[in-house]
Specification:
Blueprint: H1 6-19, H2 24-42, H3 54-67, H4 82-98, H5 103-113, H6 117-129, H7 133-142, H8 146-154, H9 158-172, E1 190-194, E2 197-201, E3 208-211, E4 227-231, E5 238-243, E6 248-254, H10 272-279, E7 286-287
Parallel strand pairs: 1-6, 6-7
Antiparallel strand pairs: 1-2, 2-3, 4-5, 5-6
Bound molecules: zinc ion (2 copies).
One zinc ion (ZN) is lined by residues 216, 218-219, 221, 243, 245-246, 248.
Length: 288
């Protein structure tokens, strides 16, 4: 199941704040971002210039199946209303400032992008092309973590990619079989296991897609003797699958064993304890 609409995601986050109090702070931050994105989700055609009709979805589907490209490679920065995106970018920076993340650096950065849509345009273009150079150079220049910069600029496009994910998931879920997401091109590090099948869940657009149970999605190793599996004694539904060739791991939620439902869209966030275990000196594993 792909990601639900943002209005419903907000409702799920409110529930999660009650069910997972340990993650309250980060969930509240996540909710604030979703509230900023809500108007974008409710009027996609006011800021996306592509006609999102059945024919468009069929074209995308055709193209990704035949070329193995992901849909982001077929989209251009000019497909979005950059003024609306810039406004959302500024609102997200505002939330980060209210949450005390990189305060001084972010204030300088906010001034830098003020009335310079060309900068936002370049960032959006880099996201679509999966080109990390823009983020690395601006991270150095402003002293802001590249992942924070990425969050600032990729968030406004999320409702668009989630919409694509909802429209195309049924057709692509069982047949894609690549390690990267066919919608946004990203590599996820969390999967849901259902009836002994492993489905990656894209942390960005929410797409679920089947991957081989014994293939490392980082390096392609398919030797089962070089794969490791760690189950948590106290929470059997949580699992780490790792590769002994490249030392990378993915986090697994076994839906057939789950006692508390992990809401769609919050898989990566609510499995942070698995990241802590994986990176501990006992395992020394790397996050994808
Ligand atoms: Zn995706
Ligand atoms: Zn590997």
């Amino acid at each position: 199941m792909s990601k639900i609409k943002i209005k419903e995601q907000i409702f799920e986050v409110e529930n999660a704040i009650e069910n997972f109090p340990k993650y309250e702070k980060i969930l509240k931050f996540h909710k604030e971002v979703l509230e900023i994105l809500l108007p974008l989700d409710e009027s996609i055609d006011s800021w996306v210039k592509i006609d999102l009709n059945k024919k468009t979805f069929e074209c995308y589907l055709d193209e990704i199946i035949t070329s193995k490209k992901s849909v982001n490679e077929l989209i251009k920065k000019s497909d979005f209303d950059i003024i609306i995106i810039t406004d959302i970018v500024k609102k997200i920076i505002e939330i980060l400032l209210n949450n005390n993340a990189n305060g001084d650096e972010l204030r300088v950065f906010r001034e830098y992008i003020e009335d310079k849509e060309v900068i936002v345009n370049n960032a959006i273009s880099s996201i679509l092309k999966e080109d990390t150079k823009w983020f690395e150079s601006h991270s150095k220049k402003f002293g802001i973590d590249p992942s924070l910069l990425l969050l600032i600029f990729e968030s406004p496009l999320r409702p668009f990619f989630e919409q694509l994910s909802r429209e195309l998931e049924e057709e692509i879920k069982e047949i894609w079989l690549e390690s990267y997401c066919p919608i946004c091109g990203r590599q996820s590090n969390v999967a849901r296991k259902k009836k002994n099948k492993r489905y990656m869940v894209c942390s960005y657009c929410g797409l679920e897609y089947l991957v081989d149970m014994f293939e490392c999605i980082n390096c392609g190793n398919i030797d089962p003797t070089k794969m490791g599996f760690i189950k948590l004694k106290e929470n059997e539904e949580y699992e780490l699958n790792y590769c002994k060739v490249c030392d990378h791991y993915i986090k697994i939620l076994d839906e057939d064993l789950a006692t508390v439902k992990i809401p769609y869209g919050l898989e990566d966030l609510l499995t942070r304890k698995l990241d802590v275990i994986a990176s501990s000196s006992d395992f020394n594993l790397k996050r994808i």
